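Researcher: Structure for this, please.
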Amino acid sequence: MGLYTNKAIDLMKVENLNKIKKMALFEENWNGTGGKAFSEGAINLFKAIINALEKQPQIAPTGRNSLLMQYELDDKSMLAFEVSERRTEEVYIPKGDYSLAQMEIFTENVSQQINESVVRFYGLK
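Model: Predicted structure, token format:
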């Protein structure tokens, strides 16, 4: 059973890295609303973070040269990160209540900060 769990995590990582690989090919206005092409530095940062994460998120590109990473719990709590080259914004929304949203900004040790936040998030269950 432990082998299966590791395989599933690896598959999510592969899927996320494939998404980032596709994002590297986006051209200016890729989303039809002025989305900027992703810089090489941003793509390398996104790959490094995905490779360093212990638990893989759902990911999506944004039109601001950043990557949205999201985790959710069954109780509708959400932990999201918007990762860009200069900073990472974390938003925690307990039980889907946006009025209780908490925000934090990271500029250093981003992978470590995200891993620590995810551990805390899943410990809150």
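Researcher: Any notable elements?
Model: The chain has a mean pLDDT of 90. Residues 2-123 form one domain.
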